[in-house]
Structures are given as C-alpha cells and as structure tokens.
Amino acid sequence: MPSGPSRSDVLESEALHLIREVAAEFDRPALLFSGGKDSAVLLRLAEKAFAPAPIPFPVLHVDTGHNFDEVLDFRDRRVAELGVRLVVAGVQDSIDAGRVAEPTGRWPSRNRAQTVTLLDAVAEHRFDALFGGARRDEERARAKERMLSFRDSFGQWDPRNQRPELWNVYNGLIRPGESVRAFPLSNWTERDVWTYVERDGVELPPLYFAHTRKVFERDGMLLADNPFLHRDPDEPLVERSVRFRTVGDMTCTGAVASEASTVSEVLAEIAATRVTERGQTRADDRTSAAAMEDRKREGYF
Question: Closest Cα to residue 188, out of 54, 7, 28, 46?
C-alpha cells in the first residue's frame, strides 16, 4: 500500500498555505531574514510558494552590527541568487539617532535594541505583515503565538488579543497602522528544520557545522573570539571543534563542542540532546518566560 505524506510534507504544505494566504491578504508583507537556519528554510519555502515567479515581497534584515561575517556573506549571496529586494535596518543607525542606548556591561547584546529599529522600519516602509521563523518549541512565550499573530498600532503583542485559527482559516483584517507577524514554522521543531534541510538540500552558513574556532568560556557558554566582548583575565582563548545550533549576535550566541560536519551527523547529535538550541546557546534567552513575554509585548519579533 502507498504510504501517506511524511511529516515534512505536511509541515511544508501548511507553511506554503500560510505564505500564499498572507501574500494574498496583505498589501506590503516582508520576510524577516537573519541568515540563520530557520530563516534560510523560510526563504526556501517562500521561493517554492511562488515558483516559477519571483518572491513578491522584500527581505528585511534588522542588522545589529554584531553579526558573524559568515552570516552576512550568506545573506547577501542568497538574496542576490533569488533576485529579491533586501531592506537592511541598522541598530547602529538607531543608536546614532538617539533612539536607543548602546548596551554595556558583561553581556552588551543589542538584541533588545532591535525592537525600536524593527518598529521604525515597519513604519518607514509601511509593512503590514512580517514573516518570521519563530517556532513554538523554542520557549513558552513563543508557544502562545498564533500562526498569524496580531500587533496593535504600537507594534505590541497581547496574547489575549489573538484571533482564533480554526481549520487553517486565518483572519487578516487589520486597521491602518496595525500589522501581523506570520509564523509558517510555528509547528516545526529543531529536528523538523534539520530534516527539511536534508530533504530539500537547503544551504546554510558554515557556522552550523563543526569547524575549528578560537573560543572562550563564560557562564558555561563557549563564545567566539570577537571585538565586541571584553574577555576577563580568567577567560583564556582556546581552539575547539565547535558548531552553532542557532545564529545571533556574536555577543550572546554560544557554540557547542561538536564534530558534526554533515546534516545527518547534526540530526544524530540533536536527537541525543535534552536542551533547546536557544536555551543552550543564547545568553539573551536565558531569562524567565515572563521576561520574554514582556519583550514580545514591547514589539519584539
């Protein structure tokens, strides 16, 4: 007997449906693209949703200025290959304009400062829908999101003010100034993402695979040597074989010791772990669920 569709097939179909629905219902959508594995898969899904036509909306990158060079190179190459318009909103521009203050201290991450830069870009370009690569398995605040997540005219999210989503029917009606975040990967897990990467041949930045890098340990995390963090005397540099499970700022994204150099080896590695990628490797996400929810209420992705 013929077998039914695989889990990857079902997840892909659900994601393509949402992407096409948002493109049809909204006037000025954009796709948030960080260069990480989730946004790389999201970009591939957008490509497939409209092929052979080009992707009918721009790609938006909120650039903190603390990115890995490999990620920026990957971003520029992918958007050039697809012929899609790239909009870059810089946190440094927000700092220079006095819109946000430069973070300082032991963890000078600009991630929270991204909120102002993002909302300014939404207002400037009049985006009414943003595709994001967030998944519900990442942490509890994200688990409260709908596939189509409503934002008020201040860019704020209220979990009590979300629309029902029955039988994949989405309500995209909004007033001027309001917007939504669309999360086609909501029901995916980290393993689902890597399974799809293997099945579809999705290219990723080399950071996701084992490589030798100079790192130092801070609070149980292996951080890449970079010009944005001051190392203490008890934080010597060492060379290790590492890879990154998620990609964010160099100031807060930790690596994991690994020899996994292929997708199949990565899949075997994450099958044995009991810690989410963000919980293990993102210092800015080592907060309570309530703290993350507060960030989302302020307009965070």
Answer: 7
pTM here is 0.90
Residue 7: CB partners within 8 Å, gap ≥ 6? 192, 195
pLDDT in tens, the chain (301 residues): 567 899 999 999 999 999 999 999 999 999 999 999 999 999 999 999 999 999 999 999 999 999 999 999 999 999 999 999 999 999 999 999 999 999 998 889 998 899 999 999 999 999 999 999 999 888 777 777 889 999 998 888 888 888 888 888 898 889 999 999 999 999 999 999 999 999 999 999 999 999 999 999 999 899 999 999 999 999 999 999 999 999 889 999 999 999 999 999 999 999 988 777 766 566 665 554 555 555 555 555 6
Residue in the structure block whose two tokens are 């989410």: 276
Instruction: Give yes or no for a contact between 84 and 78, defined as CB atoms under 8 angstroms apart.
Output: no
Tokens at 272, concatenated: 């044995």
Q: How do 29-32 and 86-90 pair as beta strands?
A: unpaired
Residues 6+ apart with CB under 8 A from 230: none
The rounded distance, in Å, linking the Cα atoms of 57 and 29 is 6
| Contacts (Cβ under 8 Å, ≥6 apart) of 25 | 129, 170, 172
If you search the block for the tokens 């006095």, which residue do you land on?
Answer: 98
